[in-house]
Each structure stands twice: as structure tokens, then as C-alpha cells.
Amino acid sequence: MRIQPPAELLHALGPAGTVRHFDELVRPEMDRLVLHVARIDLFCDVEGLVLRGEDRRAFLCRGDDCTTYEAGHVCTGFAFGSRRTRRISARMYDKTAEMASKGTDWWEEVWGDSHQEGAQVWRIEFEIGRTALTELELYHPDAVLAAVPSMWRYCTGEWLTLRTPGPDSNSSRWPVAAPWSSIQAATLAHGATELAWIRRRKRASSFRRLMPGLVGRPPGRAAAARDPRAPTRSLRCARCQDLHDPRALITMPDVALRLGRSVRHIRRLVAERRIPIVKVGRFVRFEDHAIEHWIDDHRVAPSRTASPGRRSR
User: Fold this and answer.
1) Buried b (16+ CB within 10 A) or exposed e, 240-275
2) Contact 205/105 with Cβ under 8 angstroms?
3) Helix crossing, 232-242 with 195-214: angle to 10°?
4) Please, are residues 89 and 83 in contact by the beta-carbon 8 Å criterion?
5) I need a surface site. Which of 14, 104, 265, 311 has the fewest CB within 10 A?
6) Coil vs helix vs strand at 42
7) CA nearest 192: which of 2, 3, 16?
8) Residues 79, 89: contact at Cβ < 8 Å?
9) Strand partners, 126
10) pTM, 2 dp
11) What is the pLDDT of residue 308?
């Protein structure tokens, strides 16, 4: 079984809390459960770091590959090493540019007061794969999390560094750039953020990205049934109502939570065709109202007859 926790859960519970959450969730359903870490990503977001394409030569990296990314002749990021080796790879990219393109502006509120509004933020991210973890004899989540400070020191102090070019022909003797020293000193301490808040902000940002394509554009064949004289506002209102449609599709964990059963039990009901489903490609989804009707069909009314072995009065 492969588990990849979503980013919002990691920010809400923290790495150790996320491990406990999945351990408590999965262990009752498994006869024997042993957790192994296949990959860990370490990152920090840095404000005030200025990088250009020509800074590539100022990086010293133990990885063989180095790629520079640009958009409109402006440097947007670097990638070091190869993920295919499953050892160590790194990437750094303009997080503010990514937020603008993906609509994930809720990150600014996660950063809180430490972020200056409008300032450029770069993300420095290291991916440590299964091969590297095996070589370090790190398998269990507790051991991996305990080794995080040491791995961060190695990644930012030996595997990859940003230097200030000097007259010395040996670039390894160049001094470490001041901004990189602050990255090396990062504690990777976790500040919890409410999970429900993160999800609300993600939905809001997704809706903001969706709205420009909806307002003023007929939504497919349904436009033929609409009054052509209706204003644009009516299209927007209709779409907002669709987002709260009781026929909206829900997932297997949602059904498991509603029935108070495990996801494994719901999966068995689906395999035995004992519960109504909707196939969306290779995915299984459920209609909210169909699940409500299914629950009503299985409701058993209390019996009014006397219990066997007793005489009714």
C-alpha cells in the first residue's frame, strides 16, 4: 500500500501527526502493518533571494545534472540532480510566479506576518528518495523524521551550495553566499494551520480561476435552453448553484465516514455491486442523493411483535 499525504494535511497535522493519523487509520484494517518511508521532501520558502540565469555557475552541486528554467528570458527556477536515481535531487523555483499561474494565493496567509506582501518568494526543495534512505539505513518514519535536521544540513551544506564567485580558480573555495547561509540555518520547524481553513482557501482559489472561463461564455449545450436575453449575472448565479448541487459526486472516504465504516468495507460493497456507484473513467464516485436513498432502503423499522419465549400481555 502506498500513501502520499496531501500538502494541506501535512501543514495541518505536521509530519509526525500525519504519520500517526495514517497509522491509526490503516492499522485496524491490516493484520500486520509495517511502515516504511519511500521518499521525503524537505523545503523552505525564502524571501529576498534574487536569482538569475547566470547564477547557475555559482551553484556547486554533487549531482550531475543542472537545468535552468526561463519564461520570457526571466529565470524561474533551477533543477539539480536526477529523480530517476532515487537518491537526492533538488529544485528551486519562483513560488510567487507559480502562485500566480495556479491561483494558490492562499500560501501568503499560511506564511503569515513573516511575509511581506508583494515580495518575491523562492522555494528551495530537496527530494530524498528510497535509494538514499536505504543507504542511510533509514526506514521507519520515526527514524526518518529524527534525521531530518542532519539531512537538511547535508543537502544545503555539502550536496548543494550557492557561492559568491571570487578570483580563485577553484570554485569550491568561493565563500558561501549570505542568502544561502540563512537557508542552511533554517530549522524546518512546523507551524500548524487549520485543515478546514486550508481547504476553504483552496476551493476559493480554484473557483476564482474557474470564474473567468464561466462568466460571459455559454456553458455548452445547456446554453441553448437559456433565454438569450438573460444577463451575464444569471449565468454566474446558475454556476454558483451548481457547486452546491445535492447530486454532486462524493468519494469513497466520504461514504465510509457517513456510514461509520472503513474504506475497505466500502470497497467490498462496490466489488459485490451492493451499493450504487458512478464510474468516471477508472475512478469510482457516488451520488450523494443515491447514497441517501440506499440508506433509506436498508433502514429496518423496530419490531412491534413480542420477543420469542415471552407471553404478550
Assistant:
1) eeeeeeeeebbebebbbeebeeebeebeebbeeeeb
2) yes
3) 140
4) yes
5) 311
6) strand
7) 16
8) yes
9) 42, 90
10) 0.61
11) 52
